[in-house]
From TrEMBL:
Pathway terms, separated by semicolons: Cofactor biosynthesis; NAD(+) biosynthesis; iminoaspartate from L-aspartate (dehydrogenase route): step 1/1
Entry keyword annotation includes NAD: yes
Keywords assigned by UniProt, alphabetized: NAD, NADP, Oxidoreductase, Pyridine nucleotide biosynthesis
Name listed for the protein in its UniProt record: L-aspartate dehydrogenase
Keyword Cytoplasm appears in the UniProt entry: no
Originating organism: Roseobacter ponti
Family listed: Belongs to the L-aspartate dehydrogenase family.
EC class name: oxidoreductase
GO BP: any one term: NAD+ biosynthetic process
Molecular functions per Gene Ontology: aspartate dehydrogenase [NAD(P)+] activity; NAD binding; NADP binding; oxidoreductase activity, acting on the CH-NH2 group of donors, NAD or NADP as acceptor
Length: 260
Protein backbone atom coordinates (compact mmCIF):
# COMPACT_ATOMS: atom_id res chain seq x y z
CA UNK A 1 0.00 0.00 0.00
CA UNK A 2 1.31 3.47 -0.84
CA UNK A 3 0.87 6.01 1.96
CA UNK A 4 -0.33 5.79 5.52
CA UNK A 5 -2.67 8.72 5.93
CA UNK A 6 -6.33 8.61 7.00
CA UNK A 7 -7.53 6.41 4.12
CA UNK A 8 -4.64 3.95 4.37
CA UNK A 9 -5.04 3.64 8.13
CA UNK A 10 -8.75 2.94 7.74
CA UNK A 11 -8.00 0.29 5.10
CA UNK A 12 -5.37 -1.32 7.33
CA UNK A 13 -7.79 -1.39 10.25
CA UNK A 14 -10.55 -2.82 8.06
CA UNK A 15 -8.35 -5.73 6.98
CA UNK A 16 -6.65 -6.58 10.29
CA UNK A 17 -8.84 -9.64 10.83
CA UNK A 18 -8.96 -10.70 7.17
CA UNK A 19 -7.02 -13.92 6.65
CA UNK A 20 -6.77 -13.52 2.86
CA UNK A 21 -6.37 -9.84 1.96
CA UNK A 22 -3.20 -8.87 3.80
CA UNK A 23 -1.37 -5.54 3.87
CA UNK A 24 2.23 -6.76 3.81
CA UNK A 25 4.12 -3.54 3.11
CA UNK A 26 3.58 0.21 3.22
CA UNK A 27 5.51 2.46 0.82
CA UNK A 28 6.20 5.97 2.16
CA UNK A 29 8.85 8.67 1.88
CA UNK A 30 12.08 7.75 3.65
CA UNK A 31 11.64 10.59 6.14
CA UNK A 32 8.35 9.03 7.25
CA UNK A 33 9.54 5.45 7.70
CA UNK A 34 10.36 5.58 11.43
CA UNK A 35 7.03 7.17 12.38
CA UNK A 36 5.05 4.77 10.21
CA UNK A 37 6.86 1.75 11.68
CA UNK A 38 5.69 2.85 15.10
CA UNK A 39 2.12 3.25 13.84
CA UNK A 40 1.87 -0.07 11.97
CA UNK A 41 3.68 -2.35 14.38
CA UNK A 42 5.59 -5.46 13.42
CA UNK A 43 2.97 -7.01 11.14
CA UNK A 44 3.65 -4.64 8.21
CA UNK A 45 6.94 -3.84 6.51
CA UNK A 46 7.65 -0.15 5.90
CA UNK A 47 9.66 0.65 2.76
CA UNK A 48 10.69 3.77 0.88
CA UNK A 49 11.27 2.49 -2.68
CA UNK A 50 9.56 0.29 -5.26
CA UNK A 51 12.74 -1.82 -5.38
CA UNK A 52 11.98 -3.02 -1.84
CA UNK A 53 8.61 -4.56 -2.76
CA UNK A 54 8.38 -8.30 -2.14
CA UNK A 55 9.01 -10.21 -5.36
CA UNK A 56 5.65 -11.97 -5.09
CA UNK A 57 3.61 -8.76 -4.69
CA UNK A 58 0.40 -9.04 -6.75
CA UNK A 59 -1.30 -5.73 -6.14
CA UNK A 60 -0.43 -2.26 -4.84
CA UNK A 61 -3.08 0.12 -3.51
CA UNK A 62 -2.35 3.86 -3.77
CA UNK A 63 -3.73 5.97 -0.91
CA UNK A 64 -1.26 8.85 -0.95
CA UNK A 65 -2.39 11.47 -3.47
CA UNK A 66 -1.71 12.51 -7.04
CA UNK A 67 2.04 12.92 -6.64
CA UNK A 68 2.36 9.33 -5.44
CA UNK A 69 0.73 8.10 -8.65
CA UNK A 70 3.14 10.22 -10.66
CA UNK A 71 6.15 9.04 -8.67
CA UNK A 72 5.47 5.31 -8.46
CA UNK A 73 2.63 4.35 -10.80
CA UNK A 74 4.41 3.55 -14.06
CA UNK A 75 7.30 1.78 -12.31
CA UNK A 76 4.95 -0.50 -10.38
CA UNK A 77 2.89 -1.35 -13.45
CA UNK A 78 5.98 -1.96 -15.57
CA UNK A 79 7.01 -4.67 -13.08
CA UNK A 80 3.81 -6.58 -13.80
CA UNK A 81 2.18 -5.54 -10.51
CA UNK A 82 -1.40 -4.31 -10.77
CA UNK A 83 -2.09 -0.90 -9.25
CA UNK A 84 -5.32 0.34 -7.71
CA UNK A 85 -5.62 4.10 -7.38
CA UNK A 86 -7.75 6.23 -5.10
CA UNK A 87 -6.34 9.50 -6.52
CA UNK A 88 -8.16 9.11 -9.83
CA UNK A 89 -8.17 12.83 -10.61
CA UNK A 90 -4.52 12.65 -11.64
CA UNK A 91 -5.67 10.84 -14.80
CA UNK A 92 -7.02 14.12 -16.17
CA UNK A 93 -3.40 14.51 -17.26
CA UNK A 94 -3.54 12.71 -20.61
CA UNK A 95 0.23 12.26 -20.80
CA UNK A 96 0.39 10.52 -17.43
CA UNK A 97 -2.72 8.47 -18.17
CA UNK A 98 -1.16 7.19 -21.38
CA UNK A 99 2.16 6.43 -19.66
CA UNK A 100 0.37 4.32 -17.05
CA UNK A 101 -1.69 2.57 -19.72
CA UNK A 102 1.43 1.73 -21.73
CA UNK A 103 3.24 0.41 -18.65
CA UNK A 104 0.31 -1.84 -17.78
CA UNK A 105 -0.14 -3.07 -21.34
CA UNK A 106 3.54 -3.87 -21.66
CA UNK A 107 3.69 -5.99 -18.51
CA UNK A 108 0.21 -7.52 -18.40
CA UNK A 109 -0.68 -5.66 -15.20
CA UNK A 110 -3.93 -3.77 -14.61
CA UNK A 111 -4.54 -0.16 -13.63
CA UNK A 112 -7.61 -0.40 -11.37
CA UNK A 113 -9.72 2.71 -10.83
CA UNK A 114 -11.51 2.58 -7.49
CA UNK A 115 -15.04 4.02 -7.20
CA UNK A 116 -14.02 5.88 -4.06
CA UNK A 117 -16.58 8.23 -2.56
CA UNK A 118 -19.44 7.55 -4.98
CA UNK A 119 -21.84 4.82 -5.99
CA UNK A 120 -23.34 4.14 -9.39
CA UNK A 121 -20.16 3.96 -11.47
CA UNK A 122 -20.63 0.20 -11.95
CA UNK A 123 -23.83 0.85 -13.89
CA UNK A 124 -22.24 3.62 -15.97
CA UNK A 125 -19.22 1.44 -16.76
CA UNK A 126 -21.48 -1.49 -17.66
CA UNK A 127 -23.33 0.67 -20.19
CA UNK A 128 -20.10 2.07 -21.60
CA UNK A 129 -19.73 5.14 -23.80
CA UNK A 130 -21.36 3.39 -26.76
CA UNK A 131 -24.66 3.12 -24.83
CA UNK A 132 -24.60 6.54 -23.18
CA UNK A 133 -25.71 9.81 -24.73
CA UNK A 134 -25.34 11.88 -21.55
CA UNK A 135 -23.53 11.68 -18.23
CA UNK A 136 -23.65 14.48 -15.67
CA UNK A 137 -22.16 14.90 -12.24
CA UNK A 138 -23.29 17.45 -9.63
CA UNK A 139 -21.26 17.99 -6.48
CA UNK A 140 -23.17 19.75 -3.70
CA UNK A 141 -21.68 21.10 -0.44
CA UNK A 142 -22.52 23.75 2.16
CA UNK A 143 -21.16 27.13 1.03
CA UNK A 144 -18.23 27.33 3.46
CA UNK A 145 -17.10 23.82 2.50
CA UNK A 146 -15.91 25.45 -0.75
CA UNK A 147 -13.46 27.67 1.15
CA UNK A 148 -9.98 27.27 -0.27
CA UNK A 149 -11.29 26.57 -3.77
CA UNK A 150 -11.37 28.99 -6.74
CA UNK A 151 -15.00 29.73 -5.80
CA UNK A 152 -13.77 31.67 -2.77
CA UNK A 153 -12.31 34.31 -5.10
CA UNK A 154 -15.47 34.55 -7.21
CA UNK A 155 -18.30 34.34 -4.67
CA UNK A 156 -19.13 35.61 -1.21
CA UNK A 157 -19.48 32.13 0.23
CA UNK A 158 -20.64 33.31 3.65
CA UNK A 159 -23.38 35.36 1.99
CA UNK A 160 -24.90 32.57 -0.12
CA UNK A 161 -28.51 31.96 0.96
CA UNK A 162 -29.79 29.72 -1.84
CA UNK A 163 -28.28 26.97 -4.03
CA UNK A 164 -25.66 28.61 -6.26
CA UNK A 165 -23.76 27.03 -9.16
CA UNK A 166 -20.07 27.78 -8.64
CA UNK A 167 -18.82 25.92 -11.69
CA UNK A 168 -20.34 24.45 -14.85
CA UNK A 169 -18.22 22.79 -17.52
CA UNK A 170 -16.53 19.56 -18.54
CA UNK A 171 -15.03 16.99 -16.21
CA UNK A 172 -11.56 17.87 -17.48
CA UNK A 173 -12.03 21.55 -16.63
CA UNK A 174 -13.48 20.68 -13.22
CA UNK A 175 -10.62 18.32 -12.38
CA UNK A 176 -8.05 21.00 -13.19
CA UNK A 177 -9.80 23.96 -11.58
CA UNK A 178 -11.16 22.16 -8.51
CA UNK A 179 -8.51 19.56 -7.64
CA UNK A 180 -10.15 18.69 -4.29
CA UNK A 181 -13.12 17.36 -6.29
CA UNK A 182 -10.98 15.86 -9.01
CA UNK A 183 -11.09 12.24 -7.86
CA UNK A 184 -14.87 11.91 -7.93
CA UNK A 185 -15.20 13.86 -11.17
CA UNK A 186 -12.52 11.74 -12.87
CA UNK A 187 -14.06 8.47 -11.72
CA UNK A 188 -17.42 9.37 -13.25
CA UNK A 189 -15.75 10.53 -16.46
CA UNK A 190 -13.61 7.42 -16.88
CA UNK A 191 -16.52 5.10 -16.13
CA UNK A 192 -18.61 6.65 -18.88
CA UNK A 193 -18.08 9.14 -21.70
CA UNK A 194 -14.65 10.53 -20.79
CA UNK A 195 -13.35 13.83 -19.47
CA UNK A 196 -14.52 16.01 -22.35
CA UNK A 197 -18.05 14.59 -22.70
CA UNK A 198 -19.02 14.48 -19.03
CA UNK A 199 -20.79 17.59 -17.77
CA UNK A 200 -20.06 18.81 -14.24
CA UNK A 201 -21.80 21.28 -11.95
CA UNK A 202 -20.44 22.26 -8.53
CA UNK A 203 -23.01 23.81 -6.21
CA UNK A 204 -22.88 25.70 -2.92
CA UNK A 205 -26.12 24.79 -1.14
CA UNK A 206 -26.98 26.21 2.31
CA UNK A 207 -29.40 23.30 2.76
CA UNK A 208 -26.80 20.61 2.06
CA UNK A 209 -25.97 18.23 4.89
CA UNK A 210 -22.36 17.38 4.11
CA UNK A 211 -21.07 16.44 0.66
CA UNK A 212 -23.55 15.06 -1.86
CA UNK A 213 -22.63 13.46 -5.19
CA UNK A 214 -25.34 13.26 -7.85
CA UNK A 215 -24.85 11.26 -11.05
CA UNK A 216 -27.26 11.08 -13.97
CA UNK A 217 -26.79 9.02 -17.12
CA UNK A 218 -28.98 8.51 -20.14
CA UNK A 219 -28.90 6.37 -23.25
CA UNK A 220 -31.18 4.46 -25.61
CA UNK A 221 -31.51 1.60 -23.12
CA UNK A 222 -31.24 3.34 -19.75
CA UNK A 223 -32.17 6.37 -17.72
CA UNK A 224 -30.23 6.36 -14.50
CA UNK A 225 -29.67 8.63 -11.48
CA UNK A 226 -27.84 8.02 -8.24
CA UNK A 227 -27.15 10.17 -5.18
CA UNK A 228 -24.48 9.46 -2.59
CA UNK A 229 -24.41 11.39 0.67
CA UNK A 230 -20.88 11.08 2.01
CA UNK A 231 -19.76 11.23 5.63
CA UNK A 232 -16.11 11.89 6.46
CA UNK A 233 -13.55 9.75 8.21
CA UNK A 234 -13.09 10.78 11.84
CA UNK A 235 -9.34 11.11 11.21
CA UNK A 236 -9.79 13.48 8.27
CA UNK A 237 -13.00 15.52 7.84
CA UNK A 238 -12.13 16.17 4.16
CA UNK A 239 -12.05 12.47 3.25
CA UNK A 240 -15.13 10.33 2.63
CA UNK A 241 -15.41 7.16 4.73
CA UNK A 242 -16.81 5.43 1.64
CA UNK A 243 -13.47 5.90 -0.11
CA UNK A 244 -11.78 3.68 2.47
CA UNK A 245 -14.65 1.19 2.35
CA UNK A 246 -14.35 0.88 -1.42
CA UNK A 247 -10.61 0.23 -1.09
CA UNK A 248 -11.23 -2.56 1.43
CA UNK A 249 -13.81 -4.09 -0.90
CA UNK A 250 -11.38 -3.94 -3.84
CA UNK A 251 -8.70 -5.79 -1.87
CA UNK A 252 -11.15 -8.40 -0.59
CA UNK A 253 -12.38 -9.01 -4.12
CA UNK A 254 -8.83 -9.95 -5.14
CA UNK A 255 -8.89 -12.93 -2.80
CA UNK A 256 -12.57 -13.68 -2.25
CA UNK A 257 -14.25 -16.88 -3.35
CA UNK A 258 -17.50 -15.06 -4.15
CA UNK A 259 -17.05 -11.56 -5.59
CA UNK A 260 -19.74 -8.89 -5.98
Amino acid sequence: MIGYGAIARAVHTGLRTDAQALIRQVLVRETRCAAIRQATGDDVGVISSVDALHTDTRFVLECAGHEAVRAYGAEILARGISLGIVSVGVLADDELHEALRRAAAGSGAQLVILPGAIGGTDAIAAAGPENLTMVTYTGRKPPMAWAGSPAEDQFDLAGITEPTVLFSGTAREAARQYPKNANVVATVALAGRGFDDTKVSLVADPGANGNTHEIAARGPLLDFSFTTGGRPLAANPRTSALTAMSAVRTLRNLTGTVVV
